[in-house]
Amino acid sequence: MTDPVIRASNITRNLKLGSHIVHALRGVNLEIYANEMVGIIGPSGSGKSTLLGIIGGLDSPTEGEIEIEGVDITDMDEGQLTDIRNQKIGFVFQFFNLIPTLTALENVALPIEFAQAPRHKPFERAKELLDMLGLGSRLHHRPNELSGGQQQRVAIARALANDPPILLADEPTGNLDTHSGETVLEALSAIRDNNGTTVVLVTHDPDLATQMDRVLSLVDGRIVNGLSAT
Q: How high is the pLDDT of residue 230?
């Protein structure tokens, strides 16, 4: 078997809230492999977003180790983590986080313009991705001129701008109606199938999670199962 692209080893995350310590994660172990589409489900407060943030280098564990493509990122400084995020990981969030004054094309091109060693011409790559996601007629629209589902697809295109092998999505359909959510999920599935991208998706929706290759259930900061969704 090939090595995992994501490995978490005994991850704990403790948060101090006033005089109280909240144990957000309690010894999480997981391995996720290339081309997998993995859902992480669980009730609110179970630690899903905390785990995703640690996988993506946005947060650090209190204890344990996290590896991305065999590289231990646990003790990296912010500059090193920025490089890892820019090269290896794309992020998609529930509330899109698009820059409102920029067009769809400009939003997607932005990460390439900031890349230290860009692999693509920014606007050519942005157009290619937006065309792939069915937004070729919306290139010059700003976010407030797009539907929620269209904005989320722009956000997905932006996350893919620098060809990351891993895409992390935190409740990407949570702010969308059913039809728009299905369109976004279809886009993520197509990206995995066509590009070989590993997709890790956090959701509270068990019906959506059943469309993943594998489902990890997180309860009170612990993974309680890891099941195939088929």
A: 44
